[in-house]
Amino acid sequence: MQEQYRTVAREGVHETEINRSRFICALAPAATEREAQDFVARIRKEHPTATHNCFAYVIGADAAVQKASDDGEPGGTAGVPMLQMLLRRDVRYAVAVVTRYYGGVKLGAGGLIRAYGGAVGEALDALGTVTRRRFRLATVTVDHQRAGKVENDLRATGREVRDVRYGEAVTIEIGLPDSDVEAFRAWLADATSGTAELELGEEAYGDVPTQRDA
After folding, report:
1. In which band, very low, low, confident or very high, does the pLDDT at 211 lie, cut at 50, 70 and 90?
2. Could you tell me which of 88, 111, 94 has the C-alpha nearest to residue 55?
3. How far is CA 37 from CA 7, 81, 94, in A?
4. At 149, which helix (H) or strand (E)?
5. Pairing of β 65-69 and β 52-59
6. Rounded CA separation 135/167 (Å)
7. Which helix (H) or strand (E) holds 87?
8. Which among 129, 138, 53 is positioned nearest to 92, based on CA atoms?
9. Which terminus of the chain is more exposed, N or C, with fewer CB under 10 A?
10. What pLDDT is attached to residue 196?
11. pTM of this structure
12. Is 90 exposed, middle or buried (0-12, 13-18, 19+ CB in 10 A)?
């Protein structure tokens, strides 16, 4: 499995003008191919009089699903450079639609490639991306006396604390990179004098926590 990937931070639109043609790039995160297709259909509906509504999307952390459309532009001059820009930026689970309103000046094949790929690149810069890393879901079970310090230490070191539940004992759900499991197990045993339990669950992707200053 892919260790990490980037995706679009939020849905949004960025517009640029090249030789009197308007290029409007709409970007959105998409968890499935169906979501990507629905987004493309929605943007096309919003711009029914546009000259072209070209699209590209990448689904899967390993980019297993890749689709692109030139929507009437010369073959390979729109959808493919859009797709290549997403892949070059390591963007996954994302869809881009570039709507063009023709301004009367032909750009030529090279100009179109630069325009469509550039529109996606500029939109990514404007809207931002987030990095998601593969984690092992894990549950720490610890007594009430030690739970507060364990939770604080987890958060202070940038661990992804997903949930805390209080019962006879305290269970803390965290996201743990596979490479950290053994070191974490040793740290937990030391921090709780061997009284805490660690249970490993399934794998998932989560946002990379913000690094804190030392």
Report:
1. very low
2. 94
3. 17, 19, 11
4. helix 144-156
5. antiparallel
6. 26
7. helix 79-88
8. 129
9. C
10. 94
11. 0.73
12. middle
